[in-house]
Amino acid sequence: MSLNVEQLWNNELILKHDLSGPRYTSYPTAPQFKEGFTQQQWMQAVKQSNASKAPLSLYFHIPYCNTVCYYCACNKIITANKKLAEPYVQALEKELALQARYIDSDRTVDQLHWGGGTPTYLSDEQMTLLMRKTAEHFNLRKDDSGEYSIEVHPGGVTPKRLEHIRSLGFNRLSMGVQDFDPAVQKAVNRFNSFDEVNILIKSAQQLGFESTSIDLIYGLPLQNQASFAKTLDKVLEIQPNRLSVFNYAHMPDLFKTQKQIDASQLPAPHEKLSMLYNSIERLLDAGYVYVGMDHFALPDDELAIAQKEGILHRNFQGYATHGSCDLFAFGISSIASFGDVFIQNHKDTDEYYACLEKDLLPLYKGFKINNDDKIRQAVISELICHFKVDFAVIENRFAINFNQYFEAELTALLHLQNDGLLDVNEQSINVHNVGRLLIRRICMVFDAYLNNAKNATDKGPKYSRII
Ligand SMILES: C[S@@+](CC[C@H](N)C(=O)[O-])C[C@H]1O[C@@H](n2cnc3c(N)ncnc32)[C@H](O)[C@@H]1O
Ligand code: SF4
């Protein structure tokens, strides 16, 4: 039975538990990664990864964007100088060859993602070249059975370009839209018309992209309930298979471009909450399923199906259906996860290029996970993807007694249980519907690196608010 907004929403609980917290696209989260990760450690981890024979996931980061969107919190480089893409694609080619030398080429690539910045900043020829080089080094699935996705900026993309993108093997796409209101678009310097987005999503669906997704943000300057409702109406007319409705994270000290946003134009917290409430109501009424953590999908979309079947996963791109892959990453700031390690590339292009010129991998930071990290990773993943933890599943996988191992955490969950967010018994944790929107808060209890989850707002790395 599908949920309605009343079942998910409890104003009092949201106000009480809406702390800042990680989005858990990984555990441990990126702020834990440390400098000094060596090429030898990388190779050791690759050996371990090859021995596992796990299928591969490949991520390519294309940092360039034509124009700046003031709200942006992504790792990007704003430049209209298209020439910059050329050496970057060459560097990606070199990095592909360097890494591929050590990765077992028989392993199939079940998942591939181009993210940004703006992958569609590349010309058709550059895209073809990059995909061809990838296919030279890796065993790509040629039968369209992989989850091959790309982030598309509607500006500068035509149905013809989408046809080209599809011909390269991409079968899923997400499109940044954020808001259709002209005043909001002006305030954030991001302009997409309903007509262009509508034509592109319809074309993508006709071209056989298995899943199309639109990104929206609530909490942007000059937005209000009425204006955002109009944007949602337009999006519902377009009918993407999935929707991400992100909470605007305004952290101008961290993301310099946000200094161009007039903070006095930001909607008040109660207005933001109403926007979220109305969005959930409208999307559920329109037949979308709330997958969790900002994501909605039509019931026949693979994300909704995977969640129903208990096989949904979470990775750096959000939710995914192919979860057991080892992730290798290419390009500046990209993060890999294989064997027992997380590794992030240099964020700075000069440092990235300098390493590759010396035939060195452009490693910036890394993290070797221990057994405790793996156990907590599994628990957090179960909570985020399925809103429950069956202790037997974790006990069988890691040979622990869940109640003993997590005695302190289970005690800490009691006050969330008293508030009605979840229910804990001897065998399982079950998140109630009203706890779903606050799932990050629940996961934080199992995060060993937030030494005191209650104080996570004051100490350590800065995280965005949950809602
Ligand atoms: C890399 S961008 C998508 C691709 C492409 N660059 C574009 O803008 O269309 C990823 C998404 O992150 C979201 N995003 C960026 N900055 C954000 C912020 N400060 N708060 C919340 N969401 C944000 C936007 O919805 C954006 O579409
Ligand atoms: S939202 Fe997308 S296009 Fe805009 S600056 Fe960020 S990465 Fe670039």
Features:
single chain; 467 residues; alpha/beta; pyruvate-formate lyase- activating enzyme; Arc Repressor Mutant, subunit A; 2 domains; ten-stranded mixed sheet; four-stranded antiparallel sheet; 18 helices; 38% helix; 20% strand; binds S-adenosylmethionine; binds iron/sulfur cluster
Quick recap:
The chain is an alpha/beta fold. The protein contains 18 helices and 21 strands.
Number of DSSP-assigned strands: 21
Q: How many H/I helical runs?
A: 18
Global Rg: 22 Å
**Main beta-sheet annotation:** 10 strands, mixed
Ligands and ions found: S-adenosylmethionine, iron/sulfur cluster
State the low-pLDDT regions, or none: 453-458
Helix content: 25-40%
Question: What value does the average pLDDT take?
Answer: 94
So what's the overall shape? globular
Oligomer: single chain
According to CATH, what is the topology of the largest domain?
A: pyruvate-formate lyase- activating enzyme
Q: List the domain count as a whole number.
A: 2
CATH class of the largest domain: Alpha Beta
Query: What fraction of the residues are assigned to beta strands by DSSP?
Result: 15-25%
CATH architecture of the largest domain: Alpha-Beta Horseshoe
How would you classify the helix and strand content by structural class?
alpha/beta
Give the distance, in angstroms, between the N- and C-terminal Cα atoms. 25 Å
Name the CATH superfamily assignment of the largest domain: tm_1862 like domain
